[in-house]
Amino acid sequence: MTARVSRSFFPVHAARRRLVASLGVASVAAALLLAGTGASQAADAPRNGGDVTFLIDSLGNTWIPNNSAISSFQGHIWGHVTDKLVYVDENGKASPWIAERWEQNANATQFTLHLKKGVTFSDGSPLDAAAVVANLDIWHAGRKSEGINPIGLFPKTYERAEAVDATTVKVFFKAPTLGFIPTLGYHGSILISPKTIALPAAQQADLGKTAGSGPYVVESWKEGGYVKLVKRKDYQWGPAAVGHTGPAYLDSITYKLVAEPTLRVSAVRSGQADIAYSPSPQELKSLKNAGFGVSTPRYLGFVNGLAINTKVAPFDDLRVRQALQAGINRQEIVDTVYTPDWKLATSFIQSNVPGAADYSRLLAYDPARAEKLLDDAGWVKGPKGQRVRDGQPLTLVLNSNPYLATSKAIDELLAQQLGKIGWKVVIRAYDVPTYGEKVRIGGAAVPAYEVTRSFIDAGTVAGILTDANNGENWFALGESDKKINELRDRIAGAGTAEARRPLLDELQRYVLEQGYFIPRTQIVQRIYVQSPRLKGERYNGVAYASYYTATKSK
Amino acid sequence: MSRVPSAYLHYAAKRLLQAVVVILLTYVFTFVVVSVLPGDPVTNVLRDPQNGFGEQEIQEIVASQGLDQPIPVQLWNSLTRFAAGDLGMSMRSSRPVSTLIAEVLPSTLVLASTALAVALVLALLIAYGTRFLPERFGQGLLRGAPSLFLSVPNFVIGLVLIHTFGFQLGLFRVIEPESFWATVFAAFALGIPVSAQIAEVLIVNLDNEARQEYATVARGRGLGQARLFFRHLLKPSSLPVVTVIALTVGELLGGSLITETVFGRTGVGSLVQRSVSTQDLPVLQAVVSLAAVVFVLVNLLADLVYPLLDPRVKLLGARRPREARPVNPPEATA
């Protein structure tokens, strides 16, 4: 509201008696003005020039590329400073970028990447096959003795890569790895100059010393303060999928840390900055009404929901898990906590992931069914409406996820919804360090672990659900559930997406039917508010905004 | 008089030794506190599910940082490095701690010194006002100002200043927090609570001095209010203020943490805030030790300056420094 009030401040004073009317007129005029600039801009060809300021709540911890590229914050900067081999759009579709084309063998254990010619890093060294091999190796292994991590989501089946010639790379895997190509478009898989990779960790941690091949380079930065990027004029190798391959239009992008969310939004409202990241969902409606751009791109990954620990009573009982699945009113979560920008979950993976199925019927709100299931399981309603069995109340402990600001609000709503069917919900809210220490997937004291997690390829799902191949064993099933194990192995071993699709369908239905995973909503983790003067940004598969294609009007 | 300098030297040496002990104890204390806190910083970051590391990989990475060693061994390693002047590497960012501190120190020094200046001017205005402002212009209200200033949290003052002067009046840009006007307003946010303490002491002392015979005589001679205030009352009333200023250094350091965060400045405070949230032990230790050094040095300076300002203290101070202290002995809080 600040923008509108300040705009109409003087007219109101000038015509005090017509205060209400002038307020209305001023705000309508302001809205028309904003809409007008937007429309005329859209009609023009992209124009060069302009500087934008992006206000962000954190700039993360370190800039060692491997350790930081999967952070929710630094990914914004890496997305402009570096390129990837493959572009993955918001629908999970992989398309050429630095890799012009690729081939794979029949069982997806060998891949050949053909690279674009003439690509260089900002330190002058060529982005050739040798550089790609150096990157693949460090993504896979890191340099642990120096504290450089491997990239967690890089396929663990990686064996080796070799440069066949200057623009051809052959990659070998120990087992079928259908997800390899999409993983190359993941936000961790950023191409860094071999000269940077060779530097010791302490120097890699200095962002100014890190060279990528992206459309922008780091001009200056201050830890915990800002990062200023300026455009690279000789850039010619943008991903064709975004419809532009030459140099960026904007001259500079400055990422500035402003920890307070209301300050970020107020700065955009008052025209002091162009983009505010992570505003609170409740503010979005009034911002939209005031003419600001609001983007809530979904990312590829799991929906926000609860992974149930089947070893913890009473969740070892199928009927109890199914009652939980049916006892949650998901529409009410979207209506109460969020805005219509949030979508209902249709499976336990986001609906834009290739291979996601629509099982919304399994996620329908059906309190009568939930009550019947609990009755059958021996949980009897007591005088105060609380269900009890063998003297024990029916209880669910929820540990609100400190990484997701709205998590506790959803938990509180769940407590109300489940309370109606006699379920007692205990909410525990920890800060990030304590949460990290106490709340673990499959931990004995954690009956329901809240998941918010991105991935690029649905094939990785199977590796997470059980403990095979160092999997995370989300439901503490181990090898006990034969069906899920069989599906897991067949999905992992599938050589083609066509062969894999029905298996993935079956896996999703099974996991939801068994009440192993309780979806809450599809997740929007990245929210952007931007000035109407800024147009043409793109959001990739993990919902990072790229201003490579953006323009700013005067 | 020749005994006085040697007594000073003795006194100074003793205080310096105390200072070193305080700094060392601070270092050990910080280490122990952070080490016994639940959770260890490295695995917390690594266990973030987005990273997808296996338990074995996490252990390897922890071992590579020497964090699998027993706490006493880690403390000893850290202490020997510190004694040799090596502040170590930040666990969070993998950059040298000395670089990190060098980056943020100037910003904090500018903010703290501006805030101190703001606080002194405000305190002086308030004190002058309570003495000479006519009752109908709010003299009584002014006497309540210090308690008001102290009771409003400084982040609230900061947010009000930002919204009023930054957004509504557009006097400074929030996204350029190190600019001149942004610094001035941040200094107000930080300086207002500090001014309250100084004003409080100044008012009490002015009241005392005004009751002294010399003041009555001066008034009797027809001396103007301003002259009386500045030429006669202010100097004797300022003595305890020196002590209070020394104590407010702690206030300035602590307050800068919040003020820097609210205003988006990149200073020592924001470095501490980030280091606490990630349990970055080497950085925390360096900063806390640095703060201890500053605090101890400033108080030492106050102790040494005080006898010079007041000849009555000087004589006593030379022989028995302990009794020569002002009402609030600095080491009580050091």
Salient structural properties:
heterodimer, A: 554 residues, seven-stranded mixed sheet, four-stranded antiparallel sheet, 31% helix, globular, B: 334 residues, mainly alpha, 13 helices, 76% helix
Your description of this structure?
The complex is a heterodimer of chains A (554) and B (334). Chain A is of the alpha+beta class and 554 residues long. In chain A, the strands form eight sheets. Chain A has a seven-stranded mixed β-sheet with strand order 8-9-10-1-11-21-12, with helices on both faces. In chain A, helix 11 runs antiparallel to helix 13 (367-376) and helix 17 (482-493) packs antiparallel against helix 18. The longest helix of chain A is centred in the first third of the chain and has 25 residues, at 19-43. The model of chain A is unreliable at 1-43 (pLDDT under 50). With 334 residues, chain B is mainly α. Chain B has 13 helices and no strands. Mean pLDDT of chain B is 79; it is low at 314-334. The interface between A and B is large, with 57 and 51 residues.
- H/E topology pattern of chain B: HHHHHHHHHHHHH
The percent of residues in helical segments of chain A reads 25-40%
Summed up, the helix count of chain B is 13
> Radius of gyration of chain A in whole Å, from Cα?
25 Å
Q: Give me the count of strands of chain A.
A: 25
Give the overall silhouette of chain A: globular
Q: Gap between N and C termini of chain A, in Å?
A: 23 Å
Low-pLDDT runs of 5+ residues of chain B are 314-334
Radius of gyration of chain B (CA) equals 24 Å
Would you spell out the secondary-structure blueprint of this structure?
The complex is a heterodimer of chains A (554) and B (334).
Chain A: H1 2-14, H2 19-43, E1 51-56, H3 65-68, H4 74-81, E2 86-88, E3 94-96, E4 99-104, E5 110-115, H5 129-141, E6 158-165, E7 168-173, H6 180-183, H7 194-198, H8 201-204, E8 216-222, E9 226-231, E10 252-257, H9 261-269, E11 275-277, H10 284-289, E12 293-295, E13 304-308, H11 318-326, H12 330-336, H13 367-376, E14 380-381, E15 387-389, E16 392-393, E17 395-400, H14 407-420, E18 424-429, H15 432-438, E19 448-451, H16 459-465, H17 482-493, H18 497-513, E20 517-521, E21 528-530, E22 534-535, E23 538-539, E24 545-546, E25 551-552
Parallel strand pairs in A: 1-10, 1-11, 17-18
Antiparallel strand pairs in A: 2-3, 4-5, 5-7, 6-7, 8-9, 9-10, 11-21, 12-21, 13-19, 13-20, 14-15, 15-16, 22-25, 23-24
Helix pairs in contact in A: 1-2, 11-13, 16-17, 17-18
Chain B: H1 3-36, H2 41-47, H3 55-64, H4 71-83, H5 97-132, H6 139-151, H7 154-168, H8 180-210, H9 213-220, H10 225-263, H11 268-277, H12 281-309, H13 311-319
